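Sanity check record (used in CI):
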Amino acid sequence: MKIVLASNNRGKLDELQAMFAPLGVQLVCQGDLFSGEAPEPHCTFVENALSKARFAAEKTGLPAIADDAGLCLDAFGGLPGVDTAYYCTQFGYEKNDANNVQAVLEQLAPHANRKGAMVSTLVGVRHPRDPEPLIAVGRVAVEIAPERRGSGGFGFDPVLLLPALGLTFAQMPPEQKNRFSHRGRSSRQMMELLRTSWLA
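Expected output for dITP/XTP pyrophosphatase:
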């Protein structure tokens, strides 16, 4: 089964394709099929993921899966949340992963509470007007490490510390990261939903 991934993030594509492979699902990055991105005007992950999935399905005629994920920090009342990808731009930085990490380290410096969560919400639709979207949410409690650790992964991985393991996601091999990460958790839920709903 071919499904368009409503994202241009190659890191997400690689992670999800590896996890979905046992289902015989082939994910195709939306950027390989069309240009442009869905509007994301909402304040929750599930609404934005649904907007992205419907947009990609409409553009391609294929079933679509979208991931809306973000960092929710206790010290900032759950923010940056849905604005995680653009977090650094509000502090004058150009949008990229390294600058996002730098901005969060700087903004958390005066705060004792470094706890938060990474949240991944996957939404799947069979077509743009699908009345029964598949929704899977993965959440993992993290702390923000005081400095970057490790060279793997992408996004905030170098500072996302799992206290129980004493490791950041960037210090873990991909298999271990997928076992514990927010996207790993949402992907396992989504795989089960695909298996019982779309592939049955």
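The chain has a mean pLDDT of 95. If this sentence no longer matches the regenerated tokens, the check is flagged for review.
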